[in-house]
Design goal:
Number of strands of chain A: 18
Largest interface: A-B, 43 and 43 residues
CATH topology of the largest domain in chain A: Rossmann fold
Structural class of chain A: alpha/beta
Strand content of chain A: 25-35%
CATH superfamily of the largest domain in chain A: NAD(P)-binding Rossmann-like Domain
Helix content of chain A: 25-40%
Oligomer: homodimer
């Protein structure tokens, strides 16, 4: 019988640190740009449109000698059942033998790698010395975006938070995010946290804007955006989702994680469908920017967008990182399969 | 944290009996015919064509309230490493909450459900009182095909076995299959087992022929086939694979497990590509035959073919059966994920 490793949520929280996950996700982007990875076609199924769906993302990370998959299910009605809306499960396999190596809870990994992605967008595309971050969305992912961006862009002094649906939730989140970062991630900083009252004003006064919502219509209009702003859009990951005004794309420098996914299911989808931009207007993928093969921002007045749709390679590399660290720390269990 | 159930190879061998798996797979075919299932698109990737590949089959079984996936990897060079060539891993999820329920070793399940499929083809399409079975292929799957067919078609008196590549392996397999059935499955019968020396002669004298090989060219020619023969072709599951002469399709009644898969990757693929038959010449899917909505064989002279490509629903229903039985027998372990 086979032995496979199981890393549960608790072990993953003990194992993964955001600074390492940021480097791992950067490496995944770089390996993709160097054609040392494969993304397999995504499987997507809606059990009930807008209410319950699942997707399977899979791929091959040659340098790490693994391939694998992550199944994520999203069941909106779980809220009433007091259950998490999202479940993620990952399987990792050895690419020399095809043998299953590990089962991982992917909930925490998804948060970490999604946070890292938004932050990498800001690190490589935002203005030097960006001082202010606007976080749009106060769901589960927001804490990971804020944590990662504060680590990747240490010049930030102010974080504004905004829940587009509820003034009350905006205020609550602003009052508790400092403690979340401290208690969940052991992260402390002097940064100032503020609840957004006037979103138009907040957009006009932020250097970096991260959007992480399930929105299907633009929450940020072009007129509000000042020159020099950077957007990391991480919420759009299926057809029909949209977070920012598609007209912002017209004058922006746009970088994506994966061109195919961005054009089909990302924030870029609407801008292309409405002929605001063409696929050839995209600067390229993030790995090329990190490698310096493509120039991103060239002036403090550029508006930049990173469209992060989320790719299997982020999950695979973060899972591998967790497996290696768990091995070192002797965490996780082995089971006979 | 989540609790999920793990059923390993050992537990599955203690839990699953072929007679139950046959009924379960029949039920999966019926539910598919009644539109109470969903098959999600298959993911297929070749790491090295003909040497190493993997596929992910997934779907939704509404009546059992589960959805899930199976990843199967096939690494031909494992032979030299003394490792199994095939590894299968299944994840099952609750379709009301999206929560992961179970991790199963899918190696044994794959053998059982594939054996059941070939046997169901024979049960519903072969002549009444079929006396002889020819098993083409002596790999891992052959024992499951023989076991299942002896259970589903109890009139069989003689089983011929044939390895198309090696006379020696044909002889070895014929001499040990009775013991395999006894030792691995506790199955005993008076049936006679015989090694094939002349394949042409064996084909002409068999009522039921099951092919389960990785062949890419026909091993059985049309001229050898007598009226009344039934074929269950279970080996072809990807583009380019073929086991029997495509001309056999011309006068045969053809039933498939899934029309899309059969036409694209099954035994049916070549017959259609070479314009021997059209998709509309297929009688339909097996569930329609079992339900009696479509007539299969109508005369003892008909030649019938069941093209079993293997569908996720077989795996899901067999996994669910194993989970229910393990629950009853208090087998398997629970882990915190």
């Amino acid at each position: 019988m086979l032995d496979i490793k199981v890393l549960n949520q608790e072990v993953l929280k003990e194992t993964l640190e955001m600074k390492d996950v940021i480097l791992a996700v950067e490496k995944a982007y770089i390996l993709k740009a160097q054609n040392r990875t494969e993304l397999f076609p995504m499987v997507f199924h809606e059990f009930n449109p807008g209410v319950a769906d699942m997707d399977i993302k899979s791929g091959h990370l040659k340098d790490e000698s693994i391939f694998g998959l992550k199944l994520v299910s999203w069941f909106g009605e779980n809220k009433e059942k007091n259950l998490p809306l999202l479940f993620g499960t990952t399987l990792i396999f050895d690419d020399k033998t095809g043998m299953p190596l590990a089962l991982l809870n992917a909930d925490y990994i998804t948060g970490m790698r999604t946070g890292a992605a938004g932050a990498i967008g800001a690190k490589y595309l935002a203005k030097k010395n960006s001082k202010s971050l606007l976080m749009v969305g106060t769901g589960h992912v927001a804490q990971f975006e804020i944590l990662a961006t504060l680590i990747a862009v240490p010049s930030i002094e102010k974080v504004r938070v905004y829940n587009p649906r509820s003034e009350e939730r905006t205020a609550t989140y602003a009052s508790k995010i400092k403690n979340i970062l401290k208690n969940s991630f052991n992260f402390e900083s002097d940064v100032e946290f503020e609840a957004v009252r006037d979103i138009k004003d907040a957009v006009s006064n932020s250097d970096i804007i991260i959007t992480a919502t399930p929105s299907r219509e633009p929450m940020i209009l072009k007129d509000w955006v000042k020159p020099g702003t950077h957007f990391s859009c991480v919420g759009s990951d299926m057809e029909g989702k949209q977070e920012i005004d598609e007209n912002i794309f017209l004058d922006a420098k746009v970088v994506v994680d994966d061109i195919t996914q961005a054009v089909n299911v990302g924030e870029t989808e609407t801008a292309i469908k409405k002929n605001i931009i063409k696929e050839s207007d995209l600067l390229g993928e993030m790995g090329e920017i990190i490698l310096g093969n493509i120039k991103g921002r060239t002036s403090d007045n550029d508006i930049t967008i990173f469209d992060s749709t989320g790719i299997a390679l982020q999950d695979l590399i973060t899972s591998k990182l967790a497996l290696d660290l768990a091995e070192k720390k002797n965490l996780g269990i082995s089971i006979k399969l």
